[in-house]
User: Fold these one by one.
Assistant:
Number 1:
Amino acid sequence: MTDRVPLRSATWLEAEGKQGFIHRAWLRGLGLPDDSFRGRPIIGVANSASELAPCNAGLGQTAEAVKRGVWQAGGIPLEFPTMSLGETLMRPTTMMFRNLMAMEVEELLRANPLDGVVLLSGCDKTTPAMLMAAASVDIPAIVLTAGPMLAGNVAGRRVGCGTDVWRWDADVQAGRMSADEFRSAESGMVRSQGFCQVMGTASTMASLTEVIGMQPSGFSSLAAPDSRRLALAHEAGRRITAMVLEGLRPSKIVTQGSLRNAVVANAALGGSTNAVLHLLAIAGRFGLPFDLRDFDDWSRDVPLLVDVKPSGDGLMDDFDAAGGIPALLAEVADLLSLEELTLTGRTIGEEIAGARSLNTRIIRTRTDPIAVGVGTAVLHGSLAPGGAVIKQSAASRHLLVHTGRAVVFRNMDDYVRRINDLELPIDADSVIVVQNVGPVGYPGMPEVGNFTLPRRLLEQGIDDVIRISDARMSGTGFGTVVLHVAPEAAVGGPLALVRDGDQICLDVPERRLDLLVSEAELEVRRRDTVAPLPAPRGYRRLYTSHVLQADKGVDFDFLVGGSGDDVAGRSV
């Protein structure tokens, strides 16, 4: 280690006078030796561990492993807590707080004497929030996600959290499963810390973070309790220290090419529709050209190769044992931009060289795909002029081209109150429409888009109808579900104008979603639409006043782009 490396932290720790004295003196309170304050990179360890976010609760061990690696490489690790977003506990939805967490982490990185950072994330929104923050500050960064939990085991059967819950809930509604059986399954569903062990949003975003080069190769699919994670975390501590000296920043790693790789990988994984929102937001922070049509174009002909729930039958431990992300990318290498840099300083092509599937039932070969061109499709039309999405791999084939009569609910309360009304005019050809569950309308755009069907349809053996909303769907969910309709109902989008009995045409192959109502009739309805009142105060007021629509990634309008690592006001 040289004595004089041009470090960002030097403006704090090598300053003369009283401010330099204060910065160093208070850090000495941690027991740091005299040589800690000159020429040594200061590495932040941003830890989102929280018992309110069970997925992230085990990150303390990861933090300790990172710090060991930083010390070994000659850096000074400083761990600090960040906000944590527990998808299973927070109300109204963690999506409302993703931007708040991104703001907090961004400001912590900028305001403190950090030369680089290792970002410890896990549950659905914590990973994109930390990536958004890293993009806006652009100091050297590595992301380490918490890892999937152990496979669930209920009555001797391997199960995946989320996906099997949705099926069991439908079985209870249809009388195929008792309430006691449903309750007893709780103890076998979640057997360790870590995020969902299916290809939900957390597993998807962990995987895509590895694809874009911000997470170590092979790390994303390792189970949360796996000791190999600690060894790789130790190596990440060494690596981030070197990245600081090399000047390898996120803006050199995350490019339009690496985003394209992420879109291809998402399609091959059968990944979550939430990835669309998060990648759009991340691209916006980096100032990269990327929109909904790019997502559709880049994924349209990609083969689905990963047989993991909800698009398949396996779980994340199967995916990991089969070779994980490196093996998957090797199968679609001809569709990738292989010259994109990763955190190692090597290209993604170099990272996956020699990788192959070790279980072709879980990671299929190109000659034996599960399906082709069934990734997330982007729809446009008179009902979604700003776009909407559908996860084709989780949808029913017979409903991908369908025209049906709308059954409309004004909001989630209306839906819950009336969905099991025996007088509700609904059948297998109907199209369920729920309004006002988007970013502004709910607020926060909750994961309610895969609405449970009415009990009487389930009792008839009907397990899917088209469902349309401005909400999101859990990456663990399934069904013929159209999501992220933009503009949303609450800001005057056409979704607000749908009425019971209207004909709606869904044509996924043609990427169309149309409301078959005349413009003259819509104009009459538009005049009768009343805008919702703004939230009265606090963060909800900020959120509803500044959140962008789904086609822009649901970031705040004032956070698009970044401010770099310069601190605007320095104490003297």
Number 2:
Amino acid sequence: MENDVKIALVAPPYPLSEAPSPPLGLCYVGAAFRAAGAQVRIFDYIVSAYNKDKLARQLAEFAPDVLGTGSVTMNFPTALQILADAKTLQPTLITIIGGAHVSFTARETLEKNPFLDIIVIGEAEATIMELAPLLDDSSQWDDIAGIAFRRAGEIFQNKPRQLIANIDSIPLPARDLLPLSRYKALGFPISMLTSRGCPYGCIFCQGRRLVGAKPRLRSPELVVEEMKTILGMGFGRINIADDLFTIEAGRAQSICEEILRGGLHFQWSAFVRANTVDLETLRLMKRAGCDSVSFGVESGDEEILKKIKKGITLDMAHKAAALCKEAGLIALASFIVGLPSETPDSLERTKNFAAALGCHYGFHILAPFPGTTVREEIEKYDLEILTNEWARYDANQAVIRTSALSARDIEAFVDAFEREITAERDEQLRLWGKNILPPDVEMRLSGYQQTKLIFALLEGDLLEKSYEDVSSNGKYPRSDFYGHIAAATGFERDFVTKVIDSLMARSLIVADGNGAWRWS
């Protein structure tokens, strides 16, 4: 294909409960296609509604040669449906999908979905650079490492591609392709990577196989340059999405020192590990703007920790939580329910251990994703996989059982914990706005409700729909606009007015010159 090839990338829907932030992987893919000379657009259905009619309009407007997407297991079915819809609308489109799920199910995915043309397996950037100029000639795909594809009804899977040794050479994510005002309104942190790779072998994780066991580290200078770019886009909070930010203490410290040297002032969070933190590093992270860290403990049962090859002890977890507290950082410990050999007794030990840690904590349910050791060697573990209904693999529903625990038992444990949290929040929401609650609680609840309202605006295209059936002159009085949004979302008009006015004041919602309002 010539360099003027047009690539449309799809960000498939993602639920509010999963704190959707700008899709980092898709932005890396967009940057790689750009570097290969393509024209690129992102059709973002995370912060706008998806329907086939909208897709048809977008395809007609941009007229892409290729439609690509990525997904996690949870929204894999939705991503497939969008590609299938696109193929019916424009049969000549080349359809591509990548991501962790299809990297481990490539042949199966192609066999079951005849509308799919190419699967990019594993790390995508180098593969895209080689594939992009050859997209219109499938006879030249045979030697491109890291893809599986369909040609003349036959499926081929090429050799794996080597990981990119120098990740400083990878183009920075093309975040400018996103509808940034919508993400700013939603307010979740924007994610970035400072490294790829994880040396640990947890049996429930895809990371080691997907991005390698040997850590590949970006230079602190380039990391901070990307941070400056993100801040320059108007975002004020960053989440470092590395599998393990503290993979090397000295290198984590170098990034913090570079942040301080650059005079950057912003808040950020990171993923760490109970056995890779020390007080000096945590204090330096705090000085550099980090306010919270997350680390997986997974279980309060030492034998289960050994079985899942977590590589930590309960004592390490206790010490890590204490160090975070001493450094002034908020710590969030995560636990997995339904691990191999889980029993009612081990769950009770986990519950008691989590409560004794002295930090925030939460529970998820084991989801044996494709590519994980626990799935591929299921016969070695006291586990039964109950379904391959991928939409249920959100770590909030039980898709497994152990010999001692049914799916219902597993969900009941997590539900009981969630009820404690939601019951308190529901009672606070009942009193919200009545000048009864402490100011900090009022502020937190207002933020929670604001996020729900804004996501409803985005997910339902309510800003756009407000002007579809307006008066004959095509204009909507602002008072009626607020009423329309209040009726559509169930929020009080005064709250709707306050939130939307704040978005207007930040120029995230602007007048379109015809008496209507739109996202900037």
Number 3:
Amino acid sequence: MVHMSLLEGYDFASYRDEAIDDDGSPRAHYRPVLAAMDRMGADALARRVELREVVQRSRGVTFTMRTEGAETERTFPLDLVPRIIPASQWAHIEEGLRQRVRALNLFLEDVYGEQAILSDGIIPWDMVLSSPQFQRRAWGIRPPRGVHVHVAGLDLVRGDNGDWMVLEDNLRVPSGASYVIENREVLTRVLPELFGSSPVRPVDHYPAMLRSALRSAAPPSAGNEPEIVLLTPGAYNSAYFEHTLLARHMGVPLVEGSDLLTDGDVVYMRTTRGRQRVDVIYRRIDDEYLDPLALRPDSLLGCPGLLAAARAGTVTIANAIGNGVADDKAMFAYVPEMIRYYLNEDPVLASVPTFLCGEPDQREEVLRRMDQLVVKPVDASGGYGMLIGPAADEATIERFRARINANPRGYIAQEVVRLTRHPTLIGSALAPRHVDLRPFVVQGGDRIEVLPGGLTRVALREGSLVVNSSQGGGSKDTWVLRETTPRPRIETGARRSLIRPLREERDDTALGWQQPQQQQASERPPC
């Protein structure tokens, strides 16, 4: 066992620990980081915590937390102990994420088109038609290149055996990518010495990945320079920091619904130079608020006529309208069958076992085992409205039992996963806290890219399994390590001749993925 003062009294035996082995020693890929933090000592780490707060506030890294009907803007909690994923583990995760997003995209193309998977009886018709997220008005809309899922955020967890499993799919307006970028930026400023001993893959190219995917999603009428905008509900949205950061780094206008108008099934943006045609809308507004003519008539957040323009093929809405039917929590149980049906492959990543309360036999088991399961509404997010059976009292269980009986289709249940824990700086020492991971997948045409790492969310309250920031959770910088295979030795005489081919090999523009426009030095996050 390796002795470290920061690990005095650390409980590594109750759950599988990401960083600490069964004998209490740091796992090999964590030793350099934990040893560096241990050498710093508690007082120095406390000063770094203070510095983290200063850096985050100066960069405006905030989100809005809703508690008891009130809204509070706060800095996004960042724990200073990074989560580290070896290259071999990440290769497996990346393969599984690509496979899953490909199958989910094919499902959306099918369910808003031929509906073959329903006709073949793989998924029941009523499962789709009864989904609150199935948008009938989106049927027949064919987005360019058949891409419905331009950005996906899939929530992954690990249990006692260490295997990675999918807990949820987020295909509508997944949030959190900006915090991946900012967590890395903040940690490099606060604890730069940690990076010297670990070959960490970068994450700051995410805006370039996203912009390139959006460019490739433009309709044919857009030409070589499509106009892309990011549509936000406004400054009072809890993810507004992310909207501003992504728009700035992609070099695209940040617009609200009132900035857009439609004319002849074409979308325009109001500018000081007059109307300017819009080709791609990266929307951060839920479906029902996008178009008051076709969806929710009292919405002031969207733009009248957007759906007609999408149907006419003059504008691309990313992510596509109607994606929610694929991440309906009841549909989650069918994703392994989607993978087999569309790809003729077995799932690379397993799904957390899920019960459909709309199925009588499964509902009976859920009602019998409610004190052992996690019960979730099919259309909720952010950790709201769910029951964690082992932590609930009998009165709460009875309330959920009544809700399930009143609306069986509206609920699913999942087995409780004993989430792995991770060292987290609590006060002046490390303590174990439960974590999950939300990687981000970007799809542009036939190309599917996975951002190395993603957003590790951590339940800061001792014993809590709820990691959502809206429920008091925090985050970690997630490190994916590079392969450490030695490079072949290059003779001095040959080195000069290899420089140009190597640079050309790294030219992303040759693959159709454009880099964002150079940002001015003044375009920094607000102070």
Number 4:
Amino acid sequence: MTVSGKLITRNYGNFRGVDFSNRKDEVNVYRSPDALNMWKNYKNTSGKCVETRPDIELLAEYSDTIFGLFFYDYGGTTHKIVHSGTNLYDDDTVIYSNMNEEKSMYFIYENKLYIKDGINYLVYNGTTITDVVGYIPTTSISRSPLGGGTIYEDVNILSPYRYNTFVGDGESTSYYLDAQELDSTYTPEVTDTEGNTYTVTSFDYTLGVVTLSTAPGVPLTDGQDNVKIKFKRTIPGEADKILKSTLLEVFDNRVFFSGNPDYPNYIWHSSLDDPTYCSDLDYYTEGVDDSNIKAIVSGNNALWVLKEPSQSNTTIFYHNPVIDSTYGKIYPSVHSSISTGCVSSGINFNDTICFLSDRGLEAITGDVTTEQTLMHRSSLIDNRLLNEPDYEKAFFVEWEGYLVTIIGNKMYLADSKMYSQVNDHSEYEWFYFEFKQEIVGAIVKNGILYLSTKETINDVEKNRIYTLTNKEETREVESYWTTIDDEFGYPQYQKTTNKKGCVVDIEGKQVTLYAKVDNKAYEKIDEYKIAKGYVVPRIKEKKWKALQLKFYSKKPFNLYSSTLEAYIGSYIKR
């Protein structure tokens, strides 16, 4: 069958995202093999086109590296809390000056802001910031002066203080505590239920015996505790289990902590509804090796613990709440059926647990109580993503329905509204942004994306916070979209464009169209100013094998579709 002279029409539209796989013969016409700073803005254009990303607008500048940015609503006002260098700012006011110069994390409980930075565990109520003061547990009750009684509450590793309560007998002045080797520098405090305070005449801190000047009386109700003793027993390094943790996650009304370099495969959790109380028994080890925990993520009614790759292939664990007859609610560690490790970070994205492995973005699917399955989600960008020099420093933020992976000055955006079939399974469609600044942190508040950055201007380091904005009068973003290197379905034939057969539906103040044939450089076709609707470029190219279009601008533009016609010629000469 002769095809010479046949007119072929290519329609480029319904754009879905990028494909950086370099599989020239497999890239679909609705994807771009090379696009920059273009995305689908479902809020403004309902995803009908690809358009230039928002520009950035300077919000604030700080003298030191920004390690954390949080927002705290208090008293009808939103407070911008910034961790820069060793300082913590509420808007422009320094409220704390001994921060660790490492990434910090936060959560809000009972309208108080809690902050962890790998050294400190702080609480801020909008007026005063302090170290978290640990709840003081009553470790024994119903004790006689000589001891005994009932174990009541666990030791709190966040507090060196404890209470014991006793039933006074009206005669004894010596009271035996439930612990020994106590702090010699702290004299126990003794009170009774009637508000009386007792003088301690001697204190054997080795044996844990307190001697009083007078004997407390007997209780008004027989057998009821009426004497309370507060004492102190500091265990070196105990509080550091929480203080040195660098990861936290709120799950099941408890705060879970991990990332302590001294305990790389441990997690701890607080008591129910009390972030100041961490029992010395409420911890779990994840696997038999000490490979590092990279992320803890809640989702699918479980807490997921994502560890780095290890020789034992025990890398992904999960915890479900279980009621134990002795200990109450516990969270036993269960090894999942997944052996692929996490190399940087994890996130719950639309109720799917996602993390970065050494192969790209992975998603955990399946019933948590049966068998979990790992699905790859980034085949379309892996060729570029995995070659990022700081890949293992990548972090996530969720914004406008996208899972945004941030590495250095790059953003890879996974579209939650668009899936594609790759190798017989569903994967995300992707877009790609670049910035001039290195992005060191990101957070979303009221739909606005805030970026913490580091940049050098005139040899001076600048640490700044930007917001993304669509203000048309100030937007200056270089962006482009290329079509596939198109052989029009006939790679063995030469083609010639129909010079009247190109139509582009585009909007923008200044958009330039380029065309490239075979391995030649791009050539400028035309420039369109104040374009709104269809334009008809004149593309005159002869005897080419493949042709590619590039739409470029330094001003915002929207690309809806493009149509290109070509005539089939003779066979390509070899």
